[in-house]
Amino acid sequence: MTFLRAPLARYAAILAACLTAMFALPAQAERIKELANLQGVRNNQLIGYGIVIGLDGTGDQTTQTPFTTQSIGNMLAQMGVNLTAAQTGKLQLKNVAAVMVTAALPPFARPGQPIDITVSSIGNAKSLRGGTLILTQLKGADGEVYAMAQGNVLVGGVGASAGGASVTVNHLSAGRIPGGATVERSVPTALGQGGFVYYELSNTDFGTAQKLVEAINKSEGAGTAQALDGRRIAVRTPEGNDARVNFLGRVENLEVRPVLAQAKVVVNPRTGSVVMNQRVTLDPCAVAHGNLSVVVDGGQPGQGADIQVKQANGAMMNVKAGVSLAEVVKALNALGANPMDLLAILQAMKAAGALRAELEII
Question: Which residues, 6 or more positions from 72, have their beta carbon under 8 angstroms from its beta carbon?
Fold first, then answer.
């Protein structure tokens, strides 16, 4: 079986059109809130197990998902409807699906505040479209209940089937409920300890950390901020919650011109994706790469299969130096390789010292 992939030219054209103009400009100033986060001010993940009801025959096949019928039996028992184990095992509930419910509890959330939730099938339900999630506890990593969820599931996909054929657009086994959970317990968030708050850069960079310190000290006075390492910055804050909030509101909107990121090429062998930033450059080099293909012909019944291995001739090609993203894309495009071949070529270039960038394989 042979899989055809789009030529590199298409990927290169898209990459160049989207990135060249932007990356040709000097690094733009960014606000501190876009470069760093306050230590301790974070989301907390919540999870729960629940049941979606009201499906139009697209629920779990309960003979293969016994936990669905067990959940229904437990729920009915809590409501005064007692079923024997034999009766529970015979339930055929095609309009019910077992789901996992996930949510992110934002910082400073208080009881009564609504949050969005995601509902995902864990059985073999064909679709959650039109279903209703019944009351579900959402717990944190400590096992405590922090929110209660319930509501109608919104599924962005659509599907239809008839005569053994089916068509599906987007995903039907997961959906969202905007504001579907209500916070029942808050998570204490300490905003500053010992008169200091700590900013953490999204990416470790000593140069950017120093620029943040300079910007804060210039705005709020010398000695207000100091870099502890390449990622963390200590900032002295005023006393009192109102003064501290006003101070942090000013600091997070200060503009800083970050240090340009190091040259990096990220490749994904599973999908054939290649992404590079504006710092990538090439030294002159020569590349020869031949394509290898295997063709298997099943042949007629009773006859052996015909297997052929073909290898295209790979001529040595001269790759010119590239000192900008546009020139690098043009040089790689000249090789005429498909994305999968390009992965091998980039690794060889890196080994030969011609690729001036860090090569990361994900």
Answer: 51, 88, 91, 93, 96
- Alpha-carbon distance 242 to 310, whole Å? 73
pTM: 0.66
Q: How far apart (Å, rounded) are the C-alpha atoms in residues 255 and 257?
A: 7
- The answer to whether the CB of 103 falls within 8 A of the CB of 117 is yes
pLDDT at 294: 46
List of the chain residues with pLDDT < 70? 1-27, 87, 89, 157-170, 192, 260, 289-325, 328, 332, 335-337
Name the amino acid, one letter, at 223: G
Element (H, E) at 339: helix 339-352
pLDDT at 4 (0 to 100): 37
Residue 157's pLDDT is 61
Contact 311, 291 (CB under 8 A): yes
CA–CA distance, 103 with 117 (Å, rounded to integer): 5
Cα separation, 252 vs 159, in Å, equals 46
Beta bridge partners of 45: 104
pLDDT of residue 121: 92
Extract the tokens encoding 322: 């590239």
Distance of CA 353 to the CA centre of its chain: 32
Q: Which residues contact 2 (CB under 8 A, 6 or more apart)?
A: 293, 295
CA distance 146 to 44: 10
The per-residue pLDDT for 303 is 57
d(CA 32, CA 251): 7
